[in-house]
Design goal:
296 residues; alpha/beta; TIM Barrel; 10 strands; eight-stranded parallel β-sheet; 38% helix; 11 helices
Length: 296
Amino acid sequence: MSEHHADTELNNGVRMPLLGFGVFQTPPEETRAAVAEALKTGYRLIDTAAAYGNEREVGQAIAESGIDRDEVFIETKVWISDYGHDQTLHAFDKSAGKLGVATLDLLLLHQALPTAFDTTIEAYRALETLLADGKVRAIGVSNFMPDHLERLMEHASVVPAVNQVEVHPYFSQPDVQRADADRGILTQAWSPIGGITAYRDTGTGSVFDDRTINGIAEAHGKTPAQVMLRWHLQEGRSAIPKSVKAHRIAENFDVFDFTLTAEQIKTIDGLDTGVRGGPDPADVTLEAFGRAIPEA
């Protein structure tokens, strides 16, 4: 894979870079500089979400980069508080307005609402409308488990292009990846280098300190983060690492000059603990997680 060219074709024919830049939990005041740095480094996929509160700063960085709009793949997500057909159509207006663009490359539903799945379906119908109207180039979901996908597909006419879920060596969700693959959905990894494992107390420690990953990294003269990202790319996943540090942003992009062996990939696959770091998608409710998304 040569630089810039690790991209993939989504199930609707749209091409998307596999390696992207995420801004989850990046404060708005740090987002602009981080995205500017990422674009300068060579990233062309930027992932944000209405719930992150930093879409405006992402848009400013892209506008100021001097890079043509059609060269940057912009992905964002609709928050559960904006589910429902008309509400979700308006959520597009809010996100596009903050990002300062007329069209989005990829728009996802941020979570399934298992206790109010009818509103999830209405929200997805709105994504289908936006797709048909040419306002978004691809649509998808995030944090959908196999049963959520199954329920969605009973009502949807467009198969999601992407399902963005927590995937890293300590939590690789093989069942979700299989469910995605069976339907031609691209799995996209959030927390792809296990950053989330560094600040939780599960007794598994941080994936960065993992002896196996460090051994593989030493063998290639690369860092543990680079090995993990390479693992995602070679298994055909999209990954969206986040950082606000220039040297880390560069490090995470420098993954195109080495190849893991089949044995090394299998070894990393074997590190799965089955312990998730983020909230359980089954527990996401409006009561617990709802919050208003401001207007553009």
